Structure formats: C-alpha cells, structure tokens
Amino acid sequence: MTLPPATPARSLRGVGVLLTRALEDAQQLRPLLEKEGAVVSALPAIQRVPPLDWGPVDDALRALHRYEWVAFTSRHAVHGVSRRLSEIGVAAALPPSVKIAASGPATSGAVAGAGWKADCLVQAGGAQALAEGLAAVGVRGSRILVPGSDLVRPALRDLLTATGAIVETVTVYRTIPPERNSAALEELRQGQIDIIVLASPSAVRNLMELAGREVVAKARLVCIGQTTARAVEERELQVASTADTPSAEGLLEAVMKVAEGTK
After folding, report:
1. Is 175 left (phi over 0), alpha (psi -120 to 50) or beta?
2. 94 Cβ partners below 8 Å, 6+ apart?
3. How many angstroms separate the CA atoms of 71 and 148, rounded?
4. Whole-model pTM?
5. 121 lies in some domain
6. pLDDT tens for the chain, residues 1 to 263
7. Does residue 138 lie in a domain region?
8. Cα angle: 242, vertex 257, 155; to 5 degrees
9. Could you give the maximum distance between any two Cα atoms of the chain, in Å?
10. Which among 142, 175, 208 is the end of a domain?
C-alpha cells in the first residue's frame, strides 16, 4: 500500500512578524505566534487617549433614553462608554428601551464584560457587516448612537443613514501616533520582518509615517478586516491576507497562510 506524501507541519519557525497594535491589544496574538515559532517584534503604531472634550459624550450618555440603539464596532468604544458612565455617575445598566449592536467577537466580548447584552451581533467585524445586521432587523426611523474614535470613518454612519436611521456619532477616545521604537524600526528597515500585522486604518497611516512606504512595502501585509485592507490598498500597497474573523485566532490563521506561501 502506497501512502500519500506527508503534509509538512504548519509552522512559523524563524518567520519575523511585526505587531503594530497597542501593546495591550497584542497580548492575545503574540503568544499564539510565538508558540508557532515566529520571531515577534512590536512597533505599536497607535496610542489611545481621552477625547479633548467629553461634553458631547456626556450629553449623549445622560440622555440614552433618546436612542433606540447603541452601535459598537470596537471593544475600545465599549470600554470608553462603560468607563465614562462610571465617571459621570450614570448607572451602568442601560435603559431597557436601548438595544446594543456589536460587530466581531472582541467587541461582543467587551459588551458582555460590561454587563450588557448584544441584541444585534454580527460575527464579522467592520462597519459594513454591522450596518447590514442592523438593516436586517429594521432600523428605519430609529435613533442610533455610535461611539468611537476621533478617526473613525463615516462608513457606518453613512450606511445606517441610507437605511433611514438617525445616526449620532461621539468620540470616546482619540488615536494618536506613539513614541518611536527604534529597535523594531531598525529590524523593519534591515529586512528582518517578513510579515506585518495591521489592525486599523490609523495603524496603517501611522506606520507609513514612522517607517516610510518603501520600507513597509518590503514585508507581506496581513489585515484584521476589510476596512484596514482598504486603507492599505488606498496607499497602493498589496494586502497579502485578510483575517476571516477579527480576532487573535483569525489573525494567526491569516499569518500562517501567508508564511506558507513564502516558504
């Protein structure tokens, strides 16, 4: 009996992977990559800080009863709202009339961690998926609050508005460039990085400013979702792979696929 040829074991042994998320966000992915043998470096391309003015956020949170929905596309937005409710002395329990929409496993996990229940949950991340999920349950005429970053793209607002919803966006955190990590930058410039993992359009922009387009283009680029992938393509760079799910496990799988293609 002739046995089929053995399939090589999947491995990232010796593959240089650069993580560009904030350090606290990379804690789940890094050990998964290192377990597979990857040589992981960190160059956080974003830093999150409070908004310059809490006024619009506070006004919205003190009048949550005016909204039918609160829509979250990131766990950072969930954390920002939850913390601010506590800081201004508003009950963490949302009014019974307010429903929550969340996209992606990390966001839904943060919603559950805050003690809330997601009434509309889509497994895929990003504005398009969440807008489609809300459109499916029917939001015409509904007032929807969308907390997010100062750099959030208008896609979710525009898509929901097109369905007939009344959308209000508020900034619960700002995304700014971090301090430079000279060691990781030098590794990237020296060609020691094979794969760069990108998890937001702001990370794409800031990394380009830190390292330059020609340096970034030398590595294979893995994106957490379609929104980030579009930000890469807008800069005329090639996306090697996009995660099927916006999670550490999804990114690991995407990195593995790219690494297999480079061996």
Report:
1. beta
2. 64, 70, 100, 116
3. 9
4. 0.72
5. yes
6. 333 333 345 689 999 999 998 877 788 899 999 999 999 999 988 888 999 999 999 999 999 999 999 999 989 999 999 999 999 999 888 999 999 999 988 899 999 999 999 999 998 777 888 999 999 999 999 999 999 998 877 888 999 999 999 999 999 999 888 776 678 889 999 999 999 999 988 899 999 988 999 999 999 999 998 889 999 999 999 999 999 988 899 999 999 999 987 54
7. yes
8. 5
9. 75
10. 175
61: left (phi over 0), alpha (psi -120 to 50) or beta: alpha
CA 235 to chain centroid, in Å, comes to 19
The answer for 212, left when phi > 0, alpha when psi is -120 to 50, beta otherwise, is left
Same domain, 157 and 118: yes
Domain of residue 76, residue span = 49-175
Dist. CA 122–CA 143, nearest whole Å: 20
CATH number at residue 204: 3.40.50.10090
Q: Which long-range contacts (CB under 8 A, 24 or more apart) does 153-158 make?
A: 153/127, 153/201, 153/227, 155/127, 155/128, 155/131, 155/227, 156/71, 156/73, 156/127, 156/130, 156/131
Sign of torsion, CA 244 249 246 45? Answer: negative
- What distance in Å separates the CA atoms of residue 115 and residue 237, rounded to the nearest whole number? 41
Q: Where are the alpha helices (DSSP H) in the chain?
A: 29-35, 55-61, 75-87, 105-113, 127-137, 155-162, 182-189, 201-211, 213-217, 226-234, 248-262
| Residue-by-residue DSSP string for 146-180 | EEEETT--THHHHHHHHTT-EEEEEEEEEEE----
